[in-house]
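Moderator note: this is an archived Q&A kept for reference. The question asked for a predicted structure of one protein chain; the sequence and the answer are reproduced below.
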Amino acid sequence: MVNIFKQVAEVKTASIDFSPVLSSSETITVGNITVSVIDVVSGATPSPSVVSSGSIGLSGNIISFRIQNGVDSNAYKIVVNTGLTNLLNKHEEDLILVVNDDLQILITVDEIKRGLSITDTSKDILLFDLVKAATDFMEKATNRTFTFKTYTETSYPETRETTLLLNNFPVESVTSVVIDGITLDEAVGTLANYVTETEGVIRRTDGGSFPVAPYKTTVVYKAGFTAVPEDVRNAVRKIVSWEFMKRQREGIKTEQLGSYRVTFKDILLSAQDEMVGKVIERYRKRVL
């Protein structure tokens, strides 16, 4: 069974090669092909459609179609049926589509596939695991995340300072700053308690400071990149491509859905690449 991962807004093209199950004289007729979709949890047919019926195509023995829409955190079973062939046989292949907007990946599998000239879905699981592992590596190396979303962060400063460094940046907005249960006012004229800087620094402007443990400071804020910077994407692309080619040479595979079993014991070799190293330094979380 083939497994495909995508985010809600992504549009992907999937393809199934029926050559292994067809006899030498057997052919498929495009008009007989059916592609049906079932929500794995509810058993219902999703609406809007996850597969665009007008996109079903046939090239030789390969059936392709476009995947779109889907509900976040849902899984779908896609059944591809050849319909009657010229020998009056029917052949069927199932795919599992996992839709998740919180995949926490810095580049899509499709982008990697284009760079590697891969046109089918047979390597999707391996490539997804590599992209996930490369994303984790980049975020650990830079000590930050890149995803744009709302973060809730609680700190216990070791020293009393007038500034507080957030883990994620650039910061778009701060919803609240709460110190030991007391909410600070956002900077408004002479009533300012704090100001925020794009790079993730909160600075108290009321003469106070952020207290040390056991007192805590909790900040709710929006930060990250609405679009992952191109240099970060290129670094991840380079790491994934390097690791993919290495695994193809050595015959290493991953087969389990969502396994995340890929670990880069040799990833430091790829990280030593000058371009990747510079990107890591450029986006590494700063220390005040």
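Archived answer notes: The helical segments are 109-116, 124-142, 230-250, 267-271, 274-283.
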